[in-house]
Amino acid sequence: FATGFSDSEEARVRGTSAYMARRDLFTSGLEMERSEQISRREAMRESAERISLNKREHFKRMNEDSLMHPPEFVIKPRSHTVWEKQCVRLHCTVNHLKPLIPVLSMYKNNVAIDPLANPGKYKLESRYNVHSLEINRCDFDDTAQYHASAMNSKGEQSAFASIVVKRFKGDVDESLPSPRQGPVSEYGITFQTHIVDQFGVSFGREGETMSLGCTVIIYPALNRYQPEVEWYRDDVLLSPSKWTHMHWSGDRATLTLTHLNKEDEGLYTLRVTTKSGYETYSAYVFVRDADAEVEGAPGAPLDVRCLDANKDYIIVTWKQPAVDGGNSILGYFVDRCEVGTTHWIQCNDTPVKFARFPVTGLVEGRSYTFRVRAVNKSGMSRPSRVSEPVAAMDPADRARMRGTSAPWTGQIIVTEEEPAEGVVPGRPLELQVTEATKNYVVLSWKPPGEKGLEGVMYYVEKCVSGTDNWQRVNTEIPVKSPRFALFDLAEGKSYSFRVRCCNSAGVGEPSDPTEATTVGDKLDIPSAPGKVIPTRNTDTSVVVSWEASRDAKELVGYYIESSVVGSNVWEPCNNKPVNATRFICHGLMTGETYVFRVRAVNAAGLSQFSPESEPVEVKAAIASPAPPYGITVLECVRDSMVLAWKQPNFIGGADITGYFVDYREVIDGVPGKWHEANIRAVSERAYRVSDLKENKKYQFQVRAANMAGVGIPSLPSNTFLCEEWTIAVPGPPHDLQIREVRSDSLVLLWKPPVYQGRDPVNGFYVDIKEAEAPEEAWRGVNNKIKNLKEGETYVFRVRAQNKAGVGNTSDVTEPVSAVTKPGSKEIVVDVDDDGIISLNFECCDMTPDSKFVWSKNYEEISDASRLTVETKGNKSKAVFKTPGEEDVGIYSCLVTHTDGASASYTLSEEELKRLLEISHDHKFPIIPLKSELAVELLEKGKVRFWLQAEKISPNGKVDYIFNDNAVSQGEKYKMNFDKNTGVIEMIMESLTPADEGTYTFQLQDGKATNQSSLVLIGDVFKQLQQESEFQRKEWFRKQGPHFIEYLGYEVTPECCVILKCKVGNMKKETSALWYKDGHEIKSDEHLGFTEGVLKLEIAQISKKDAGVYEVVLKDDRGKDTSTLNLTDQANSSTPLKVTSTDEGIRLYTFVSYYNDLLQVTWHYKDSAIAFSDRIKSGVVGEQLWLQISEPTEKDMGKYAIEFNDGKGGLRRTLELSGQDRARVAGGLPDVVTIQEGKALNLTCNISGNPVPEVTWLKNDREITSDEHCILKFESGKFASFTITGVNTSDSGKYSILVKNKYGTESGDFTVSVFIPDEAGGKKK
After folding, report:
1. C-alpha to C-alpha distance for 1164 and 1172, rounded to whole angstroms
2. What's the CA gap between 144 and 285, in Å, rounded?
3. What is the rounded distance in angstroms from the CA atom of residue 658 to the CA atom of residue 683?
4. Residue 213 in contact with residue 123, Cβ under 8 Å?
5. In the beta sheet, which residues pair with residue 780?
6. Are 980 and 954 in contact (CB under 8 A)?
7. Structure confidence by residue, pLDDT tens digits, 804-827
8. Cα 247 to the chain's mean position, in Å?
9. Would you give the DSSP letter of residue 1036?
């Protein structure tokens, strides 16, 4: 390439790293070798030229930072001659120095090239300072003169190249090679580079370590060849440092960011360069602020840089943080640290709001680093990352140190002039105010041009405008640098400034004063950005663009913030300002709706926020769909054809809204022009193309459309002849769809043929074969497609049949694997607490555009009168409004924009009946009871009505009803409700005749209710009342002296009769008096009282001793009386009988009358019974009873009761045998598992005398015999249970309960009904 440089300039440019990179890109192998061999002659010539330059020119050459010149073309575009329909690319490289970055434009025959005006023709690209113009498929019109124009504020440069396009005389060969794109190896090897295993958009936090890496595959692989691997951040080449470590292992490139700071945020690019070109990959890295050390403190400033460094003066700049902690930032503190120490010194006493600050008072020759901290009313931020070290020295000296050393020539050349001594320096030149804020003013000037500059320093003077009173600012120490910052000036006042030089010879004359300068911020905060427009990008990102701030000066960039709609919480999208007006905000939540706002930033501060954007939902952007495929003919008549096609494999992220069909006539194999068959899109994948010509051949193409637009057309179909079909059999079915794919089954749907033949279609045949099997492997499938082999891949086809025969086969489906995808769900039927029946389906792999589509019998449900669909998140529910027989059918649900997520549920008549029963139970729930309402007597004769609920919540309540009237807590009624145990009770002190009637407890717990009643009328009430009164009297009797055993008698062996009774609760004051026939018996030796027993001995009893004896106990607590009738009157009783009770069995007898004189004794096997909690005795009216709770075989045997009324005794006996008790002898299993539809028959043996009563229960509820469940009890011995045809509703726990007067027993078993297809866990 011709560079236009002199030999010495070319050599110097070649020494730079930028040139080395450009050389690798654009020079051939021979040029590389030539450029790497710089001769000694050229180096010496350059040294001689540099020595001949004067000092000012030499410094100017060595310090290119101070150069301001027009742009220069380092590599110019070159001319090309190419064949027609080939591609050509023009390259150029422009040398530029910040801040004068040139603007480059491309021209054709002096007319600017606009790629948008000719889409696909031109492609302009600028990357890494390399500019290119690519012209696609050149033609004669592209023959022209092209030139590139680079322009900045200092001027414009152009570079020209010509392109000549030639044509072959013969046919054009479209396979001609494209032009070379980049350098190729001189050895003839073309490398192919692929970057795989790429890093994605990454998020980190300040202080963390992050690694980015990619695997690089280069083919062919040469062991000794290594590509050039480079990393860029925001198109700026990165070099290894303490912040960035780079590693290349031969096949993997890794970049490690050792200590993240917000400066590290940006677009990272990996560039791999080989001899054949380069490949790049880019992804964005976001760095969030570290947690603040003080809650509410702002984020740390960033990008701290040092500008205009001089001997004792440096300007420090930085960028404001995006996060202010919720309170406005009051300002910033700048800290400095001398290199080699760890001691930080704060440079400003008060915070500065301007993001630029002049630091003075530095020691010449020493190096410093700087950092910045932000402060608000909550506290101080963390410090920023430290700046690069910078030395406090004269810029000329720095340039000299940076310059390229000349080769050693054996001579030492002194270029400095000897200073003249004893000369007072002249006036400083070009004094000006370079920066003015309300906190400080910066002056700059040039040293005087005269000799005598050794040790020159400066004094600065100021003067308030309108006066002539000059004051020296730096009175003590003059400054060494031609820069000075003045602080503590009065804001709003105007000042003029001048400078004097001084040295050892004295102080020179002052410079010309500056114009009057008013103290205040000259740089305004930028205006708020304009309209913000968000655009969908991916399912976690949004593209945000906005209008730039108007008239913004020294703009640093923009900060973008996002907020979920309704949250009012704003989060920063970037923590490093972006210079463009478009940014991709990553890390958003899929499916959420966001709004965005933007603000601009410059050194003066941050602007107001832009207006909020319109809300946008985060989901993948849509594109036009791919082309359909598989065009076939379903019917053909004389002037029309019905076409069908398959849906595109890629629908563009949005539902397809329709299709457009084109056709063209084919004459002698030459296709004609395309014509539109339909203007309006058709929604079905079948369409009749009309107005065709009979016996003509046609081709067709189809395009799909969605909301993003119309996609590209499909490939042209085969050529079809338009002639009327006359065949008798039907045409092919079409639109085959596969649903509900499981590991052993699937559902295949299709549409009937458009052409039915001579007779209507009366059936279909479904064929299946393995995808890799030959054509001979096709076989028919009956009914459902089941019993597939898991993991095998299958294809399907369908044939229609009418009376004439079987028609042509449909198109074969795409191969499908019999695999249940992870996360696949089935439809679940549910009945809620309100009795609402619903079908529920959940999908785990939905996309933002997915929708649930419910169907009945595989036809989409459009009538909402029977079913209501509710969808929330990834769950959908189909709710039946009034379920009935018309709702019986197959219900299916398909989720769009997924990998075929679908399921079905068969609602049969039996299942509907079962669900309706459950629904009724849920609508009208019953509170289960452990025990019904019962009554019992408590101490003191109190009457307790009680029941126990099995389960009741703390919100449950009870109403107490007596004879249809509510009763409440009071003196007569005491109510208690223990919600932990479910025990509900009502206690009455006593019963009166007015208390006869019906008692009811009504329970309510939410919607659940129940009630239990107890009827106390007639003899039942009177008996309970008498017993209560008796217990009451007994209680009061026992409060004073009373009889434990009433008066009785015994006969001693000496034939003496002793009357005795046992007493209790006696005290000294208690008197015991004996009476006979109402006359007191005087105390004598015949009366006795020992150990609580009163005795009266009758030594020789005779008829004169007959009579009624009475003992009276009394004291101040009360009295008690016991009477014994020693007369001829006798008592009688009924035979001893047995009955069954809830607790066990009860033996009882009735006496003709009962009084306190009747002595009762119970015997078991001729021994008196020792009473306990399990065996008790008692009296109710004239009934004497013995209660045995939970009887066992040990309780069998002979029982007897003896009672004596003083005149004589009676004995009643009963043989209690276990064979008389009701029992379930056997025959019932524990668990019965049975297939749906089968008959169930169970029989068990029953024993007991008398014959027991038999009751059957299901889930603890009594059932009765009907047509479905037949219950029999035959011959008093055999109980049978029969279900004619079981279904799933028959599953449950069953019990048989047998009971007679001697006891009760039960037998339990469980019935489990399964459906054959469900037994294997599969559903068709």
Report:
1. 14
2. 44
3. 4
4. no
5. 767
6. no
7. 899 989 999 999 999 998 888 999
8. 37
9. H
- Beta bridge partners of residue 662, listed in sequence order: 676, 701
Residue 716 and residue 671 in contact, taking contact as beta carbons nearer than 8 Å? yes
- 3-class DSSP assignment, residue 1011: strand
Are 23 and 15 within 8 A, CB to CB?
Answer: no
DSSP strand E in 1151-1252: where? 1159-1164, 1167-1168, 1175-1180, 1183-1189, 1197-1204, 1209-1216, 1223-1226, 1231-1235, 1240-1247
Chain centroid offset of residue 1285 CA? 47
Would you say 1031 and 1076 are in contact if contact means Cβ atoms under 8 Å apart? no
Q: Are 1182 and 1154 in contact (CB under 8 A)?
A: yes
C-alpha 84/C-alpha 546 separation (Å) is 42
The span from the CA of 432 to the CA of 497, in Å, is 9
470-508 residue pLDDT tens:
888 887 778 888 888 888 788 888 899 999 988 878 888
Both tokens of residue 919? 């629904």
- If 0-12 CB within 10 Å is exposed, 13-18 middle and 19+ buried, where does residue 1229 land? exposed
Instruction: Identify the sign of the CA torsion 606, 607, 608, 612.
Output: negative
**In the structure encoding, which two tokens stand for residue 800, read together?**
């229609």
Q: Note the pTM of the prediction, 2 decimals.
A: 0.46
Rounded Cα distance, 281 and 286, in Å: 17
Query: CB neighbours (10 Å) of residue 967?
Result: 16
So what's the pLDDT on residue 35? 41
Fill in the DSSP letter of residue 256: E
Q: Is the pLDDT of residue 406 over 70?
A: no
Q: Which helix (H) or strand (E) holds 17?
A: helix 17-26
Pairs from 1106-1110 (Cβ < 8 Å, separation ≥ 24): 1107/1076, 1107/1077, 1108/1076, 1108/1077, 1108/1078, 1109/1047, 1109/1059, 1109/1074, 1109/1075, 1109/1076, 1110/1047, 1110/1074, 1110/1075, 1110/1076, 1110/1078
438 to 490, 515, 607: CA distances (angstroms): 8, 17, 19
Residue 714 near residue 628 (C-beta atoms within 8 A): yes
Cα–Cα distances in angstroms (integers) from residue 1194 to residues 482, 1190, 1216, in the given order: 122, 11, 11
Question: What burial class does residue 788 get, using C-beta atoms within 10 Å of its C-beta: 0-12 exposed, 13-18 middle, 19+ buried?
Answer: buried
CA 922 to chain centre: 33
Give the span between the Cα atoms of 480 and 456, in whole angstroms. Answer: 7
Could you tell me which residues are beta bridge partners of residue 1110?
Answer: 1075, 1123
